[in-house]
Each structure stands twice: as structure tokens, then as C-alpha cells.
Amino acid sequence: VEERTELYKAERDRADRLNFMLLPRPVVKSLKETGLVEPELFEEVTIYFSDIVGFTTLCKYSTPMEVVDMLNDIYKNFDHILDHHDVYKVETIGDAYMVVSGLPKRNGNRHAVDISMMALDILSFMGSFELRHLPGLPVWIRIGIHSGPCAAGVVGIKMPRYCLFGDTVNTASRMESTGLPLRIHVNGSTINILKRTDCQFQYEERGETYLK
Asked: Do 60 and 6 share a domain, yes or no?
């Protein structure tokens, strides 16, 4: 009986570790205890989007397997960087990478600081990254950051996802798509939060730009 119990505990721990990689820890706990997760409104979070500049062109000179390996090499390293910051990886959509801070665990003004520090670390990593199948070819990314309110909750039963909704998500995505290569395009809402903290960042005004 003791041996069976130990095997059960080991299997349960493995399942928990896998669940914690797919969903935030409080969400997994709620699903286990009650079978549901109530959607929640968050007054202020910071959202990060990035994508690879010229991804379509890179794909043209790559086999399908090389494309998968390329994204896996890049995003595995991004995932390791996330471990050093209080952030949650929402998802990857093709070559786009989405991260949030400030939910499901609220963290004061830290969400803007952690996302900004994470973005700097990611940009630093990309400066030394080299494709295995196209060595010597630089890979550039665009980064967009925006802060504001959003709703979040679990969507679906099979392969459930913890999804974010609201204009803050859309604006963060637009900040990325209208940004410049190798730059972190930050909206004024995020900068206002950063200025309320002790962390010092250098900013450069880009001027007005059109956002849909």
C-alpha cells in the first residue's frame, strides 16, 4: 500500500507540474478544488507582444522543420528569461509571443517594471542569437508594451486556455505592430506607472503615430 501511495503521489506531482506550465497556479488550484474558474476583471496590468521581423521571408528560405526548430530555439530561451520575472506567458501565436504581468496575482506597480525588465533581457538575448540553419543572418524582433485594465478567464474544456480580453490587449498588439525593429515601443500608460516606481529607465519620444 505504501509503495502504491508513493507512486500515486509522484504521478500527481508530475501532473501538477505539467498543469502549472499550462495555466497559472491559482487557476489550477481553483480548477482542482471547485472545477471552475470565475472570470475576473483586473484594473491595471501590463501586456507585452513581440514578433519576428521578416518572418515570412525567413520561412521562404527554411524548410518546415527548420521553421519549427527556429521558433523553438528562440521561444525556449524567452521562456527561461521569464523565469526571472513576475510574469505569465499567455501564448505564442505563430511567431508572436504574448506575456502579461499583474494577473492573476496582482503585484502593485511591479507589473510595468517586470515586463520592461523582461523586454530588455529579451532584446539583449536577441543581439547574440544565431539561427542554426542560417548562421550569420541577424534575427530582429519588434516589441510593444501597453498597460491598462483587462478581463481574464479560462476558456474551453479540452486544452483550456487562460485568455485575456479587452482594449488593452488590442492596443498592446498595435504597439508591437507599429513599432520599429530592435526597439521597445512603450505606451504612455506604462511610462506613467514606471515613473511611480524607484526604477529608472531611459525613454526616447517617438512622436505621434497612427494606431487603428
From this structure: no
CA angle, 22 as apex, 14 and 187 as ends, to 5°?
Answer: 145
Give a yes or no: residue 100 inside a domain: yes
Rg of the chain's alpha carbons, rounded to an integer? 19
Q: How far is it, in rounded angstroms, from Cα 160 to Cα 124?
A: 33
Grid cell listed for 2? 505504501
**Interval 47-106: pLDDT, tens:** 999 999 999 999 999 999 999 999 999 999 999 999 999 999 999 988 999 999 999 889
Angle formed at CA 102 by CA 189 and CA 112, multiple of 5 degrees: 40
Domain span at residue 9?
A: 1-36
Domain contains 208: no
Residue-wise pLDDT for 26-60, tens only, equals 777 777 777 677 889 999 999 999 999 999 999 99
Residues 6+ apart with CB under 8 A from 67: 58, 59
What region does 149 belong to: left with phi over 0, alpha with psi -120 to 50, or beta?
beta
Residue 168 in any domain: the answer is yes
Exposure letters 144-171 (e unless 16+ CB within 10 A, then b): bbbbbebebbbeeeeeeebbbebebbeb
Q: Are 47 and 99 in contact (CB under 8 A)?
A: yes
Instruction: Tell me, yes or no, whether 212 lies in a domain.
Output: no
**Do 164 and 152 share a structural domain?**
yes
pTM > 0.85: yes or no: yes
> In the chain, how many domains are there?
2
**What CATH number should be reported for the domain holding residue 126?**
3.30.70.1230
